[in-house]
Amino acid sequence: MNEPRILMCPPDFYGIEYEINPWMDRRRQADRLKAIDQWTQLKTILTEAGAKIELLTPQAGLPDLVFTANSAIIYKDEAILARFRHPERQKEVPVNQAWFQKAGFVLKELPEAFAVEGAGDALFCGETLFAGYRMRSDALGHQQIGRDLMVQVLPLELIDPYYYHLDTCFCPLQPGVAIYYPGAFDEYGQSTLKHWVPTLIPVEKEEAERFACNAVVVDKTVVTNEGCPKLHQQLQQLGYNPIATPLDEFTKAGGSAKCLTLRLDGEEAAGWKYASGESTKRIA
Amino acid sequence: MQAPTERMPFRETVEVSGHVIDSLILPKILDAITSRAGSFIIQEFTVGQNRTDPSYVLLEVLAETPEKLADILEQISDHGAVPISAQDCNLEVADLAGCFPEGFYSTTHHHCEVRLDGHWFEVDRPEMDCGIKVDPGEKTAICIPMVEVKPGDQIIVGHAGVRVFPEARDQKRRLFEFMGSEVSTEKPKGVAFREVAMEMLRAKEAGKEVLLVGGPAIVHTGSGDHLNSLIRGGYIHRLFAGNALATHDIEQALFGTSLGVNLNEGISTEGGHEHHLRAINRIRRVGGIKQAVEEGLLTQGIMYECVINNVPYLLAGSIRDDGPLPEVITDTLEAQKQMREQVQNVGFALMIATTLHSIAVGNLLPGTTKVVCVDINPSTVIKLSDRGSIQTVGLVTDVEPFLRSLVQELKQLTS
After folding, report:
1. What is the CATH number for B25?
2. Confidence of residue A282 (pLDDT cuts 50, 70, 90)
3. Which chain B residues touch A186 with a CB distance below 8 Å?
4. B191 and B308 belong to one structural domain
5. Which residues, 6+ apart, have CB-to-CB distance to B213 below 8 Å?
6. Which of A69, A177, B75, B353 is spaced 20 to 30 Å from B368 by Cα?
7. Last residue in a domain, options B61, B84, B107
8. Is the ipTM of this complex over 0.90?
9. B12 with B107, same domain?
């Protein structure tokens, strides 16, 4: 197995400069020094967990560039560049494009008609790509990706504006295992997840609001924001090593640990990075 | 209680693809439709075979009012169900000669439009069971049969960006006031014959051609003279037939028999079974029907009248042909190709006593061309209607009285 590689972007220009989700409020500004401190702590934890951190150069005027999870969907050596719903974030695309190009990824772009916000709304669990739609990404965009990559795509409608990206309410830990917040999905979405993910760990509302599901997974280490003790207990029982780190300056913008990272070699739960047989089998 | 199709006249066809079953997206879409008092008809449903294969569903959404329909469409579009009319057509480059790309749009014979860069363009030469070739630069689209595909042709795949305008059935009622498409031996024939005569005249007045597609029964039943007078009168502008019609017509012209039977006396002639072969042989010896007329060998009959009156004829061969006559096109695809070219200005087609040629020509005609199929055998008419030629009106009747009446009707109408 290759060394885990994670893309991060220092929060030098991070702040609440606009409001594009219910968490954002320009009157509740982020403390930049505190944010830099929290970001650095996260980076240290991930490095200690064995990940190699690669950096995207921050840009003035692009406060959300720190949320690298949204920059692209990674599939093997391909990077499917995000198309953002809001004009505020569309300006991030050229920066992302330049970085992935330089890093040697094969770039793929979606037709203009679709919005798809990178790994924020598209997470592999086993061989299946789970895709969140309605708030930030279009179901049709994910279907296009499924056709191009020839993978199974299961669209999940996000029904609560506070959980506007799939990675705020669903986090695969390994093939066949994931945590999720049921309240972010309708009955169809909940049924689909229960059917396709054999070990599905529900997170309670108050911990979901602490971004419990926005976790970074490196091998058995699961990093989340502080304030998710019940989840951490469950993770420990399942043999994981949960670590809490303060990320409140970033939750002001609607993001947390996972949003601040993009796994460049494929998430731990992505079936395609394993030799066949190791990943989860089809259940139905 | 009325069926949803009657209660809900407002409709839109949408498509949805992907893993719509595994993700419960399809039940979700269908629930969204029914919970908003709409209804749906699944027109096409292809289920992916393997886990990674997407499924495809084409469904018609029905609602009672345009507002309700718009509400439903807005809801389901978020789940990826998009009206096929709201998208440009999808093009794929043909990679093999004589083959469409997989998933090509298969045409009907109805008036059809395709969407390119947000604008709708008419598809030229509507024909059923073809594909649509598009030139995005010239903004043109044309129906082409499979065999004519060349590598590099841009072919429409899927249903998106294609809309079809079927000729309304009530329009047909206007055209043939007294005839439905139902085949019946019980209908009053006189009125129907007059309608056919009027249609022939209307086509002629509109600058369109009347095509006759005929089988050898025209000759066997002794109706040749009626047809001859139609040709002489300028009511028939083009003839499509097989080897048999021409052969037996010439046999009759040369020997007075059709398949060896004397048409005046109705009895078999000694050695008569050889007549049709001798007839073919004579024509072959002079090089063709036209030459036989020019040399004075052929002096009467349907083929003679065609030559003399400059009515173009096309004889398409089949595997059971004797001879055949030199003009018979034995390459089926070549025959199809030439027929396709020649039907472009046909406004009315009269198909008499031939199953094979009627269906072949019916397949080539656009939905706007009116067709009357006359046959003593109802199955021919039914077959043609079942092929989708809904513009076809069938008359189950004997050929001879039909043609005799038609000649009289035309005389009366034009006198």
Report:
1. 3.30.70.2690
2. very low
3. 28
4. yes
5. B239, B240, B241, B349, B350, B351, B352, B354, B357, B358, B361
6. B353
7. B84
8. no
9. no
Which among B118, B139, B165 is the end of a domain?
A: B165
Give the pLDDT confidence of A79-103 residue by residue, as tens digits. 999 999 999 999 999 999 999 999 9
Tell me if residue A9 is catalytic: no
Residue that wins the pLDDT comparison between A282 and B223: B223
Pairing relationship of beta strands A221-225 and A216-218 according to DSSP bridges: antiparallel
- Same domain, yes or no, for B179 and B54? no
Handedness of CA B227, B233, B236, B238 (dihedral sign): positive
Residues B177 and B285 in one domain: yes
Residue B62: give the domain boundaries: 4-84
Window A:127-186, CB contacts with B under 8 Å? 127, 133-134, 138-140, 142-143, 146-147, 150-157, 186
Helix (H, G, I), strand (E, B) or coil at B151: coil
Which chain A residues touch B82 with a CB distance below 8 Å?
Answer: 140
Say whether pLDDT at B180 is over 70.
Answer: no
State whether B18 and A151 contact (CB < 8 Å).
no
- B interface with A, Cβ–Cβ below 8 Å: 17-19, 22-25, 27-28, 51-52, 54, 78-80, 82
Residues B108, B257, single domain; the answer is no
What amino acid occupies position A37? D
Q: Which amino acid is at B142?
A: I
Residue among A188, A194, A196 with most chain B CBs within 10 A, to mutate: A188
Judged by CB atoms closer than 8 Å, whether chains meet at A147 and B24 is answered as no
pLDDT above 70 covers a percentage of chain B that reads 91
Per DSSP, the three-state class of A22 is: coil
Q: Are residues B236 and B382 in the same domain?
A: yes
Residue B181's pLDDT is what? 47
d(CA A231, CA A217): 14
Among A254, A210, A250, A259, residue whose Cα is nearest residue A34: A250
Query: Which tens digits make up the pLDDT trace of B239-295?
Result: 999 999 999 999 999 998 887 788 777 778 877 788 999 999 999 999 999 999 999
In CATH, what number is assigned to the domain containing residue B97?
Answer: 2.40.420.10
pLDDT at B257: 84
Q: How far apart are CA B154 and CA B345, in angstroms?
A: 27
Per-residue pLDDT tens over the stretch A61-82? 999 999 999 999 999 999 999 9
Structural domains in chain A, CATH included, are: 5-15+22-273 (3.75.10.10)
Residues B173 and B131 in one domain: no
Q: Which of B21, B23, B52 to mutate to test the interface with A (most CBs of A within 10 A)?
A: B23
Write out the two tokens for B98. 């004589």
Which residue is catalytic, options A9, A125, A142, A165? A165
pLDDT at position B2, please? 64
Does the beta-carbon distance from B78 to A134 stay under 8 Å?
Answer: yes
